[in-house]
Design a protein that fits this description.
Layout (H helix, E strand, L loop, with lengths): L2 H12 L4 H8 L3 H9 L6 H9 L4 H6 L3 H5 L16 H37 L8 H30 L1
């Protein structure tokens, strides 16, 4: 059993659901749910999105970190100006950064929802061959790769500047 499967099973039990019940919520048969929990198969994004709506902590399932630990970014009180070198502008900067991070996280969930819908449409074969979907997906992948690289570079730089 892989980590995702083990945590998925733990979440299902926490919610007091059977494999059939959670599978139905996620839009899969009980045997597929069993394969996810045993680690024989990895769940798709649309499945994860559906079970998240039912209360499954997807962050915990995928990463092993409870969403409660990731959702709330603790803001430590900043000492008044003159103590430990903090000024009012640094206090405002901290609050701004925390607010922006919250907005970014919300945008990521909106993006994940949109990607689930794209997956559903592609799988349902509701698209015509002339839609050039693959070209659009390649552009989207390039954009996503660029944003991830930029974000990782910024985080890496910020981490090294603070240490």
């Amino acid at each position: 059993m892989n980590g995702i499967g083990k945590r998925l099973k733990q979440e299902r039990k926490r919610l007091k659901l059977t494999q059939s019940a959670l599978g139905a919520i996620g839009g899969v048969e009980a045997n597929a749910q069993g394969h996810y929990e045993s680690g024989q198969r990895l769940p798709r994004a649309d499945y994860l999105f559906r079970i998240a709506a039912a209360g499954v902590d997807i962050s915990r399932v995928v990463t092993g970190i409870d969403s409660h630990n990731r959702m709330e970014v603790p803001v430590m009180p900043v000492p008044p100006a003159g103590r430990n070198g903090y000024s009012d502008s640094e206090d405002n900067s901290t609050e701004s950064v925390v607010k922006i991070i919250g907005q970014l996280r919300q945008s990521l969930w909106v993006t994940a929802n949109a990607l689930c819908e794209v997956t559903r449409l592609i799988d349902s074969r509701e698209l015509n061959n002339g839609d050039h979907v693959e070209d659009h997906l390649r552009v989207l992948q390039g954009d996503a790769d660029m944003f991830v690289a930029l974000a990782l570079a910024r985080v890496h730089k910020a981490t090294h500047e603070t240490h």
